[in-house]
DNA sequence: TATCCGTGGCT
DNA sequence: TAGCCAAGGAT
């Protein structure tokens, strides 16, 4: 019953054991919001330096709204899920233009902003404004499915409803922000995916999974899909000591990031075939493909790639964007001024060595 | 409901 | 080592 998820026990534990984190040293809704977006699917230790750089460079919502897209994306570089960055920027501009620069203080107004889903809305509105809304994230899923030994795949409608009902009933009316953070803190530091330390858990006496000795059996996950490996051929087109780079489209995979031209090697194609096809489609040029600079592999969420980087030159004509994506010639020093995906960035040392 | 969307740390 | 996982949202 309500004893199983006891907000009083949880809050007492949190008061004693919570970690000191940068976004816990402020009540600024903008900073709390920024931290929540960065923390989506991203670990605390990874976020901290990014959060500190952002708050230094953009101390409030209007400062971020006024910033140039490329500068913000460059600061996000390496954090992943780049649509979070694009949506955050869109949202800040709405805050500036439609809310007088103040973060909306009601769930109704806040939840309509780009990149703000059910979790982020509940987290920000409870932590920053004291609204009694229960936030459900991966930690909460794990803690609650264990407390109540919820069988069934955690992403199924029934289990999701059971989890939401449990936290809705338990969330503190007086300290909802701390309640939400306490649930997540418990999941992150005690009720961990592997080898949870039940001896340190304030809710251990009522935990059904522990009573069954099956803590690690929850949450139940669905079947996982195999991830394909795609070969990708890329070109370092060199001319007058400069390198050709292009910007990815504003939507989709790695939106707005810069990269070397090239693309998937289709079945039956040679690497040179693929480079010829891709550079003609994207830039309207026929490359003279030279030696292989090097190769790296990289894993994304739903597929892996093996990148093969080739030296190349273009003869007559100059590369021109055929798909509306900006194109630029840059020096090796400029590589660090633009936002590149990590997979491309892995190739930089090989490239610098090859161009020696 | 299922899939897409990154990266780094951990075991 | 290879897979798992993390303070999710959009479509």
UniProtKB/TrEMBL annotation:
Role played: Adenine glycosylase active on G-A mispairs. MutY also corrects error-prone DNA synthesis past GO lesions which are due to the oxidatively damaged form of guanine: 7,8-dihydro-8-oxoguanine (8-oxo-dGTP).
Organism field: Desulfoluna butyratoxydans
Gene Ontology MF, one: purine-specific mismatch base pair DNA N-glycosylase activity
Pfam families: HhH-GPD, NUDIX_4
SUPFAM superfamilies, per the entry: DNA-glycosylase, Nudix
Superkingdom as given in the UniProt entry: Bacteria
Similarity field: Belongs to the Nth/MutY family.
Cofactor(s) essential for the protein: [4Fe-4S] cluster
Coiled coil: none
Keyword Hydrolase among record annotations: yes
Residue ranges constituting the Nudix hydrolase domain according to the UniProt record: 228-353
BP GO terms, sorted: base-excision repair; mismatch repair
Catalysed reaction equations from the record: Hydrolyzes free adenine bases from 7,8-dihydro-8-oxoguanine:adenine mismatched double-stranded DNA, leaving an apurinic site
Protein name: Adenine DNA glycosylase
InterPro entries the record matches: A/G_AdeGlyc_MutY (IPR005760), DNA_glycosylase (IPR011257), Endonuclease3_FeS-loop_motif (IPR003651), HhH-GPD_domain (IPR003265), HhH_base_excis_C (IPR023170), MIG/MutY (IPR044298), MutY_C (IPR029119), NUDIX_hydrolase-like_dom_sf (IPR015797)
Keyword field: 4Fe-4S, DNA damage, DNA repair, Glycosidase, Hydrolase, Iron, Iron-sulfur, Metal-binding
Protein EC: 3.2.2.31
